[in-house]
Give the backbone structure.
Amino acid sequence: MKTVRNGSRRDFLRQSFAGAALLCAGGGAGALAGAEPVAAKSGAAGAKSRVVVAHDELLRGADSKVDSGRIQALLDRAMQAISGREHPVEAWKALASPGETVGLKVNTLGGRGISTNVLLVAAICERLHQAGVRPSDITVWDRDSSELERAGFHLAMGGERVQCYGTDRVGYEENLAAWGNVGSRLSKILTQRTSVLINVPVLKDHDGAGVTIALKNMYGVIHNPNKYHPDGCNPYVADLNMLPEIRTRMRLTICDATTAIYQGGPGYKPEHCWNANSLLVSQDPVALDHTGWQMIEHKRADKGLKTLEAEMRAPRYIATAADGEHKLGTNDPKRIAIVEA
Amino acid sequence: MLCGLEVQEIARNQAGNPLDRRSFLKCALASGAAIGISGAAQPAAGMGSGAASGTQDDARFIVEAKFYQKLAERKIKCKLCPRECTVGDKERGYCGVRENRGGVYYTLVHSRVCAAHVDPVEKKPLFHYLPGSIAFSLATAGCNVNCKFCQNWDISQSRPEQIPAEYLPPQRVAEIAKQYNCPTIAYTYSEPVIFSEFLMDAADAGHAAGIRSIVVSNGYMQEEALKTAYGKMDAVKIDLKSFSESYYRQVVTGQLKPVLNSLVTLRKMNKWTEIVYLVLPTLNDSDEEFRELAQWVKANLGPDVPLHFTQFHPEYLLKNLPITPVPTLERAKAIADAEGLHYVYIGNVPGHPAQNTYCPKCRKMLVERVGFTASQMLIRKNCCPFCQHPIPGIWHV
């Protein structure tokens, strides 16, 4: 596997994670499984859930903006690491086939300051196209078109281009989807335009839930997310991710941690943002959330802030997602292999 | 949140057989148009009847909220209902219709009417308030609880931009009510707590035009907001969904105690109040709960507050339960009667004799009801015409 070495990446990883198994670049790599549900992949006895953390200290140019070439390279390294494939396009071919419709669920609540990076999404679309997916079969989406625009995306509906719009343009399914404590109408983009779901959230602190990363990004799929914020979103986040319409489509999470926020989220608070210059990639959203949570805790410690636990807002929904009732993945550090790339 | 009986009941009575909820809402909106809503109020830009409710940024519907407190870091604490949501910038409260924008809290549903209809007042149900009259009834999207049995979940549990709506400012509400000879405006269908600012302005406009206002509410509201908003109402119907905190927590996603406090506050305010208790098989239908409820009502509100035990129909997240058996409702009524309440009704069971009003002294029938029609009304000067016993209520315009 091709890797780009720089002096600070390993230090960065060591500083960011304690307890979880840290593998060498490329170590522990395995094949991506396409349509297989995540829990089936991560639940095998003795198997570890791999979370790739790809970092590039030089991701930004002189103007501190993310460089399009370097983020493409960063994405490629991450995909090679998660898939074990020599060529990044092969990794994407393992995820999505020609004729499938791919939905990229981004997060644009925080406006241009703290939303999924447009260049990252462009890089994903480029590789999907090279893997044989038609641009018009790719939909970049979130709940609201105006929020997408504010985050820097250009809306597109129809034609041969990559599609980009919010659920407000097509609405929600009439019937309820229900699991546990959740009963919601699902975005028609998910149900009618997405056979392969790639979750592209942002690494963020959340004033109620503790953190919002992979699992909670699914709140943007339903019509009534406001109903599921009490009690730190627990067990609602876990229950929501159990919906078959979500679970059977979910193939991969690519968490944008190029810019992240460790306090005051989920809205944009520039004073609490930092350039983490990283991507977190996993097929286990629970392991990824646990890993992202630890990154936020480390940053909070660096800044002299209390832990989320001390602030009474530890993200308990992550443990719920891992419990015997949900089995959406693992939050056990001993069963999480962090792979640097 | 309204128990939703209104929708189901009128659907059954008008069509002769049950309409599904969505069909009803479409009918209701179409009916509203027929009585002049669309012709009177310009639809939101780019939308026609049945179109989406505009964007979440539609400025006509956005008014600064009245009941909230500003906090540090552009957060706010909502003081409208007991939930007291702390809401960060660009986020909404639990109700989904109030949003923090840069540290200022806004309602997104002022004048944003998603359901409008002319209903018999008996459909609310209010049985001791102008029997046989009609009310111009309206709602916006949103609710501050999430009852698993909600009959109107597709408006109550939605965000305002997700459902069709019309721009209907307070003055126009009053004009339409007058145009259709409605002595009353009713705020109902979803949960009026969450559109309090609109309700207050519409009530003021109505009163200026000689039209009263009534509200159908869950009563899950902070005392100060209740006094301010419902102080403008002429009558109130409260859905007391259970007499158990665990039921409120698990089935309603709310709390019982604040609702009881609201009922006591309304009593102190001398607001005419009636109570509906939706009876769900196995969940809130024990003798003990009925008895405790009746005892509390008598001790805290008095024996003359009408109490309606109404029949549940499976809907939303509780489709697994059966329709409430009529004998269960009759058992509830018998217990409440035995505890000394004077006006205990059975609702949502057309033709049941417990829909009528009887004099508690001479037991003669005073108001006969067939479905939602008051077919006979004998009360004169607020008294039984047979024994002159005072009958509490607002009986005449």
Remarks:
- Residues 21-34 of chain B form the longest helix (14 residues).
- Residues 59-107 of chain B form one domain.
- Chain B touches chain A at residues 22, 52, 55-57, 73-75, 83, 85-86, 88-96, 146, 148, 153, 157-159, 161-162, 253, 316-317 (CB under 8 Å).
- The two ends of chain B are 28 Å apart (CA to CA).
